[in-house]
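Go through this chain for my students:
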Amino acid sequence: MSKVKEVQRAQHHVPDLLKATHATTAANANEYLPNADAEKAPKPSWARQSIPNFPQLSEFEVVRHFTKLSQLNHSIDGGMYPLGSCTMKYNPRINEEVAAMPRFSHMHPYLPQQNVQGTLEVMYLLQQALMDITGMKGCSLHPAAGAQGELAGVKMIRKYHDEKGQTQKKVILVPDSAHGTNPATAALSGFSVKTLNSNADGIITLDEIKDKMDETVAGLMITVPNTLGIFEKEIKEIAGFLHAHDALLYCDGANLNAMVGQVHILNMGVDVMHINLHKTFSTPHGGGGPGSGPVVVSDRLLPYMPNPQVIKKQDGTYALADVEKSIGKYRGFYGNFGMFIRALCYIYAFGRNKLSDISETAVLNANYIKHHLRDFYDLPYTSRTLHEAVFSDKLQQKQNKVKTMDIAKRLMDFGYHPPTVYFPLVVDGALMIEPTESESKAELDRFIATMQQIAQEAKEDPDKVKTAPHRTGIKRLDETLAARKPVLTWNPDEV
């Protein structure tokens, strides 16, 4: 096994960088700007007697500082980003080019509908594309992210039961492998949650549903494939059983990348699903947004969709229309429109007949990694997996008490973002790896060799792994302290 080289970041001492860029301020820490002449002001009391100790920096110092900080960051443009269940694929530049066209980017949301026909057409075409891909009967683009898409979907389930006078239906079933947003969304929508236990193969069975079913169950939230990367093979039977008890099926679309172009979600019995455009359809992650989480629905929930909808009139023009029993409005104006353009570009780049290439390549890449790492890391579930593989630190813990977090930190020394760690919760010390369809075989081979080398280090030189990272701008942080007591402002005392 050839040794993989570590990667040295361009700038790796942030404290020194801060000291350099704030040198002017440090030298003049006790100097203040002169008091403003406020004698002619209407209210002299408005004038401050002193001003805070603002940083005194030139434009060049600021530009250089933030440029160097940007070089410390990791992005999909800089290297593989194997975060499981996040689908960190490449964001094609043509998407950005089209989204930046002035007739899109300069469009004001208050313009009359007759003046924004191109904007409405983009939205209508994306609605139709998402319905075509999933087989569902309706689509709303309004939700601003996956979690808000979940909220809209579960609120529609709530409205469905309320309209039928079924106020006793106050329970949502959620698997133990679910994303944390699922039970949170159910609770926020006024439901209580019952947890379903996965079996030894990592899936939910119809028998488990039957055991939890009663007249209070309003629906089931389930991710397909689940967060272990395993397809829920009893999903159609589960859907039929739920519908027989007038309960609805919510599908979390977080892992749609494993199935796009392969299956119509409607044929699985799904009543509502959110789609993460920033996962499956290549719109950017990061920077705090904007995300986009459209919802698609079956006939059962069409009357309750968020308002407004984009429709195509008989004369060929586009307009906004409301549905009478809607759950309401979930986003101002048209939603995160820039993401709609990017997603539509991505879908049209593949076309109807080639969308399946996305899922086929994503599944192939994940299974290639799984095959080559299964002898180096514990594989808690041996079931066939799709777009991601979940390992654990069981072998490394047994050898030298090397933990998942140690492995993740060491991976950073080789220029990779760590995989998702300690999730799903049904796997102790989980390492969840999702390469997406973006990565070449050469990059997959380098990643595999790196993971194999780290496994060897954990066995022969565990301290090297336990103290990683060694070559990043910032070494190990006290992550608990950083989360609980964040310092988000400049402080001259720390220069």
Remarks:
- Residues 421 and 475 are 18 Å apart (CA to CA).
- The longest helix spans residues 441-460.
- The chain has a mean pLDDT of 91.
- The longest strand covers residues 217-223.
